[in-house]
Design goal:
The protein is an all-alpha fold. Helix content is 73%, strand content 0%.
Length: 141
Amino acid sequence: MQSGDPLGSCLSRPLRQCRSNNTAELSVTFAWYAEMAVLSECRLRRAVEALLTDESEVRDVASYGCISGVSDFIYYRETIAFFDQHQSDIEEWLFNDHDFTLADFCKNAEDVDQLKNAMVWAAVDLYCQERTIYAETFQPA
């Protein structure tokens, strides 16, 4: 994971692979989607889906991020409560499954509240981007 833009570089990799005709790269892509399927059993996925029920909002978050204003993820009290409730799942998903480091989030956070907010936004942004990629790739035309 590059330190400059960890979220962008993480997500551009699967997009490039989806557009490839190289069999080896496509098998890596399907492995990536298999990892996404693992998230289907995750409490974090269920929690995010319970709050983001509108597909157009999911696509908006995938395109513009939580910073654009997403219901239930706007105010610090909302994001901090979400983080506190799902801390272990958020950390596992970001750090273990997507190779983020705590330093990726600490560099722009001036306090713990901003750190928690950044991690929640990254998790929600990443989830929405993966869900959108998955839907666009595996939905019949």
